[in-house]
Structure prediction request, 204 residues.
Amino acid sequence: MNFTETAWKVFNKSIEDYHVSDDVNTLINNPFEKDTLERILYAKNWIDTVQWHLEDIIRDENIDPAEALQLKRAIDASNQKRTDLVEFIDSWFLKKYESVIPKPDAKINTETIAWAVDRLSILALKVYHMSLEANRDSASEEHRANCQAKLDVLLAQHEDLSTSINQLLTDIENGDVKMKVYKQMKMYNDESLNPVLYQKGQQK
Prediction:
């Protein structure tokens, strides 16, 4: 089983486990052993799955404004955790390939492994939910057909993205691509960088 096959399997287990209770307040119960890549991938997708449903909830037109604000704060916090974990995954791969010496003409990829994995995790969620819609008994036949067409595109995207990630890993292993990791430098949650937050602090 190659890397993306493993990741896809882990992501789908996380999604299925979440939907047992289908509650954004459910605590994660990671079934994989400590310090394994599978445990990290499961945690990554769990964050994505919870955030997916927080995004659904906040779009309720009748939501109480105070509740919406709390949800927005929860989504911001989730985004930060997601970014931190993506960067951790990149660090994991950087450690894995630290002994590889890139060739003099090695290329630099526009996207790191972990951010490609992030897209794969979100894609697993799209496939899961689009499949539900394509088979929802209460929906019209037209709706199901439209969703099946979209699902077919998502499944093709899964194949292409998986191939691309596996090729990138091979290129890094062979020294054809130089692995570099950049921090995202998120600013909106930092009281020293977000002007709305630090100006408020100066007014006290």
